[in-house]
Amino acid sequence: DSGAAEGDFYHVKDLLDPDERAKLDRVRAFLVDRVAPGAGERWEAGETPLGLRDEIRDLDITGTWADDHHIAPRSYLLTGLIGMEMARVDASFATFFGVHAGLAMGSIRECGSEEQKERWLPPMVRWEKTGAFGLTEPLVGSGASLGLLTTARRDGDSWVLDGEKKWIGNATFADLVVIWARDVADDQVRGFVVEKGAPGFTARALEGKIALRGVQNAHIVLDGVRVPEANRLARADSFRDTARVLKVTRGGVAWSATGCAIGAYEAARAYALEREQFGRPIAGFQLVQDLLARMLANITACQGMVVRMAALHEQHRLDDAQAALAKMFCTTRMRETVAWAREVLGGNGILLEHGAARFFADAEALYSYEGTRDMNSLIVGRAITGHSAFV
Ligand code: FAD
């Protein structure tokens, strides 16, 4: 039985129906054959795997993020496990996919009119149009709910956007960027789909990242960018609507964090079985086994949590605090797990070629994006006490 070797000790994949299981197996084969081989090189070179878009389309999985009767029914367990499998191989790839399918398509799914969904989701499901999501700004990160500086001003049949966004994944090449801005008329946050080539829109790649180097992030400048009223997300009237998108994607990060931990654990286990010191495999030493057991315990605890989260979501019962708890817990357990994995590899733990190093570095970004550990903890704290500690 390979449950321990593959980081699926309690067999959570057995919860899928046979069709879903076949789909997940296809995704796994693609990840192993097509994503894993170049992941280290792409990370070093700072390259996003844009060339894989046609193959991702052919996997026929992106529709399950659309939650739309026109495209495909959504299975939260399957989407979660796909995200986990992606991050298990390459967290940059998982982020590239997640920004498009989770954040950008999710904004349109949660906040678009039926007409807007019809217009944008089908080409996004087919990866003919790639999406990005612009909320964070150079001066506004955790405090986005209160103080976005990017403004939207209504002018006849269109809107004029001015401001800057930072950290925006996929934005250097995206066809559609969802921009969140504060309406100067009433101070409410609204969402706008800015299409590639809009005059006044520029996106420059951020240099010098030490995590998730295999996916590009951009610094965006919006200088009087004009978008038609038809591109204003019809059902986004305040930050509460943005938060509906983030609830789902935070849950998604909990799944990817679990996957990132599994990837590091697998690298550590393989290395421990291979590497010999004192004339025997280091896997035979008690202290190494203890680290591996603790990694597997972290992974298994996270899986228990995210599987239950998916069930709550399926029943439309998942709330913000429950998603925040999973994001906070799974990223914390991941951060601990990847550090133990790096430790098992000794000096080789900091070399990209042995695998663990990439997961170790990437974990830092997963820990802080989509709401830092602190902010997610405070969302849970508010649910526990009724007091908001951050507003
Ligand atoms: P800050 O908000 O400045 O926080 C700094 C520190 O202060 C943190 O430790 C934080 O927890 C703490 N802090 C802040 N407020 C409080 C408080 N009230 N109480 C206690 N502690 C507090 N954003 C997008 O919009 N789109 C993207 O595609 C995107 N991709 C990203 C990809 C990567 C690799 C990274 C690193 C970030 C990405 N982000 C993206 C931005 C990300 O969501 C923010 O980095 C995150 O929300 C934190 O904001 P900040 O970095 O400005 O930190």
TrEMBL record:
Cross-referenced Gene3D superfamilies? Acyl-CoA dehydrogenase/oxidase, N-terminal domain, Butyryl-CoA Dehydrogenase, subunit A, domain 2, Butyryl-CoA Dehydrogenase, subunit A, domain 3
**For the Acyl-CoA dehydrogenase/oxidase N-terminal domain, which residue ranges apply?**
18-126
Q: Name one Pfam family in it.
A: Acyl-CoA_dh_M
Quote the InterPro entries the UniProt record gives.
ACX4-like, Acyl-CoA_DH_CS, Acyl-CoA_Oxase/DH_mid-dom, Acyl-CoA_Oxase/DH_mid-dom_sf, AcylCo_DH-like_C, AcylCo_DH/oxidase_C, AcylCoA_DH/ox_N, AcylCoA_DH/ox_N_sf
Protein's UniProt keywords contain Hydrolase: no
Task: Give the top-rank taxon of the lineage listed in the UniProt record for this protein.
Answer: Bacteria
Every Acyl-CoA oxidase/dehydrogenase middle domain range:
132-225
Q: Where does the Acyl-CoA dehydrogenase/oxidase C-terminal domain lie? A: 243-384
Protein's name in the database:
Acyl-CoA dehydrogenase family protein
Q: Which UniProt keywords apply?
A: FAD, Flavoprotein, Oxidoreductase
Give the required cofactors.
FAD
Q: Which PANTHER family match?
A: ACYL-COA DEHYDROGENASE, ACYL-COENZYME A OXIDASE
What family does the database annotate? Belongs to the acyl-CoA dehydrogenase family.
